[in-house]
Design goal:
Layout lengths: L1 H13 L3 H27 L2 H23 L1
Length: 70
């Protein structure tokens, strides 16, 4: 029971403001799928396509996250 309390408290201590937690959730929802696309491309397509497609997927997440903040 003590571990549950600590695990629930850590994210709130790291980002005490609700907006900061919202940004952290959004970045998770964008970077996880883009990382999966990146890994999938490297596993199943030719290397030149994987380079451009994987970079594009991660860059899209990197652009969307600060864009969401503004």
């Amino acid at each position: 029971m003590n571990g549950l309390w600590i695990d629930n408290r850590i994210p709130r201590a790291a980002a005490p403001h609700p907006v900061a937690r919202q940004v952290a959730r959004f970045s998770g929802w964008t970077f996880v799928p883009s990382g999966l696309v990146h890994a999938g491309l490297w596993a199943f397509v030719p290397i030149p396509v994987a380079i451009w497609g994987g970079t594009g997927a991660v860059m899209t997440a990197a652009i969307l996250t600060p864009g969401h903040c503004f």
